[in-house]
Write a structure and sequence with these properties.
L-fucose Isomerase, Chain A, domain 3, Rossmann fold, 20 strands, disordered N terminus, 2 domains, 6-stranded mixed β-sheet, alpha/beta, about 525 residues
Length: about 525
């Protein structure tokens, strides 16, 4: 990955997947970057009241392009609900409401507020990567940072970790789906009058910890995961090859080869597109039939899209066979939006995982190499890349993505139900919602060969979240360990994690020892 702080996984190109989407959406919002910047007060005269500016960080009130939560999403009802809840729950406050899509719009708000008597800021991250919190925190004013889950969660996690690492003295955060937790955190601004930012930050931190549920029952269903020894795993990794469409940098290729023994070969878009075009039509129809018969539900996906997705699967599989590889990762959004490929690979990745091969999203080579290592270690269990969301209201981390296997215990293991839906962010193509098994221990991690480190945590699978916002598959897990610590590493490791079924702590640590690597337990 060119920059460990890149929030999502496209290591092969100049901008990440989420940066690509954000830049496109920001362009739609207009060249000035200002979204209704003028102050709007919905409180009465506020003599003696705490005055708080609420800044919603988003592309536009109605989302103009593909990104979390999804294209066309109307934020106005959500913002109105938040505004009304704050007004009702904080009667001793006056609230001023603004929207900003980046630093320029934020700077204008901060300049206006120099004479407005604002006591503090609530920055609500509605879309992922809008840089609004950074200039607000830099202003020195007490700042509460809130996550609009399944909308702004990537930026929220990455930016929060950065503020915590830099020990920003005026920064506090709330990551809860309960509106009462937001209201309680906002009330902590009252501490500023007597104790300044330090008292405010301390009060929010204590409140968040108090309101996060205690750990639940973490005993899990029996899961006999037969792992290889570290030596055997390393030998199998040396026999592996990843195809990276449309390419990653030579430095990370060399690091993965040296540190993990895995070959990485760059493949251009046109090779994948040619393989897709050459896919046998009858075979494509047969694969589409298989998916159609196997899916518990299909919504807004045409038969034609199923067949073009099946052709993409067959094309990827033929490339793997032709080039002696067992893994492929594709810069899917860059390829699709750039008209380099003509079908999403999501269903193809799903099927490759079920076949015992590896299909990985977004040309995220770090996550792909992790999937290769874990597939070898567990003798065939698939991992899936996700964009995690943390909810302190439920003490859960939710692993969200539009791809996942439905045979989490390996190709010969028991299958779980799955649905075929559109790709969530743009409502196009076909992707998978896998309704994953519950009650089992899972391991989430990512390997970085350049750092010679593995980021690692475990969680008990407790729920499948059915929410139309953001990516389709959403497995919720209760983390093993300290959920507060789980907020601290995203700025160094990016947003993605790879989740594998099984309690893999001992074999992962043994594998790291054999490679001379360090494991960072993020919970």
């Amino acid at each position: 990955m060119r920059d460990a702080r890149i929030p999502s996984g496209c290591a092969c190109c100049g901008i990440s997947r989420r940066q690509f989407l954000a830049k496109g959406c920001a362009a739609c919002a207009g060249a000035t970057g200002v979204l209704s910047v003028g102050a709007r007060s919905w409180a009465a005269d506020a003599d003696g009241k705490v005055r708080i500016r609420v800044i919603y960080a988003l592309h536009a009130p109605k989302q103009p392009g593909p990104d979390w939560p999804n294209v066309g999403f109307d934020f106005q009802p959500a913002m109105d609900r938040i505004n009304a809840t704050l007004k009702e729950g904080c009667p001793n406050f006056e609230f001023l409401s603004s929207m900003a899509n980046g630093p320029e719009a934020t700077a204008k708000i901060l300049e206006e507020d120099k004479t407005a008597g604002v006591d503090g800021y609530l920055v609500y991250q509605m879309n992922c990567w809008n840089h609004v919190s950074q200039p607000v925190v830099a202003s020195g004013k007490p700042t509460l940072f809130a996550d609009f889950q399944y909308g702004g969660s990537g930026g929220f996690l990455v930016y929060t970790a950065g503020f915590l690492r830099n020990k920003a003295p005026n920064f506090a955060f709330v990551a809860s789906t309960r509106m009462e937790d937001l209201v309680a955190a906002v009330r902590c601004f009252e501490k500023v009058k007597s104790g300044g930012s330090e008292a405010f930050v301390s009060a929010v931190t204590q409140l968040r910890k108090k309101r996060t549920p205690a750990p639940g029952e973490l005993a899990c269903k029996a899961d006999k995961c037969a792992t290889l020894t570290s030596k055997e795993c390393l030998e199998r990794m040396k026999d592996s090859r990843i195809l990276a469409v449309a390419g990653v940098g030579p430095e990370i290729i060399a690091a993965i080869k040296q540190g993990m023994g895995i070959d990485v070969v760059n493949v251009p878009f046109d090779a994948l597109d040619a393989a897709w075009k050459a896919a046998d039509k009858d075979q494509s129809k047969a694969v589409a039939d298989q998916w159609q018969k196997g899916a518990a539900r299909i919504a807004d996906v045409s038969r034609e899209t199923l067949e073009t997705s099946a052709a993409m699967y067959l094309g990827m599989k033929s490339l793997l066979a032709e080039r002696g590889a067992n893994a492929i990762t594709v810069n899917c959004l860059g390829g699709f939006y750039g008209n380099h490929i003509h079908a999403y690979p999501c269903l193809g990745f799903h099927q490759l995982q079920n076949d015992g091969l590896i299909g990985a999203c977004e040309c995220d080579i770090l996550s792909t190499s992790t999937m290769v290592a874990m597939n070898a270690l567990t003798q065939g269990r698939p991992g899936y890349i996700s964009d995690p969301v943390i909810d302190t209201a439920t003490r859960q981390i939710i692993y969200a993505h539009c791809v996942a296997s439905n045979r989490v215990f390996g190709p010969k293991g028991e299958a779980n139900p799955y649905q075929i839906l559109t790709h969530s962010e743009d409502r196009q193509g076909a992707s998978v919602r896998s309704v994953l098994p519950l009650g089992y221990m899972t391991t989430s991690l990512k390997c970085d060969a350049a750092k010679k480190q593995i980021i690692f945590h475990r969680g008990k699978a407790v729920a499948n979240i059915d929410d139309d916002r953001a990516c389709r598959t959403k497995l919720a897990a209760e983390p093993v360990g300290d959920i507060e610590k789980l907020f601290t590493e995203w700025d160094q490791w990016g947003w993605h994690r790879v989740t594998v079924y099984g309690d893999l702590k001992e074999p992962v640590f043994s594998l790291a020892d054999a490679m001379g690597w360090k494991v960072i337990e993020e919970a």
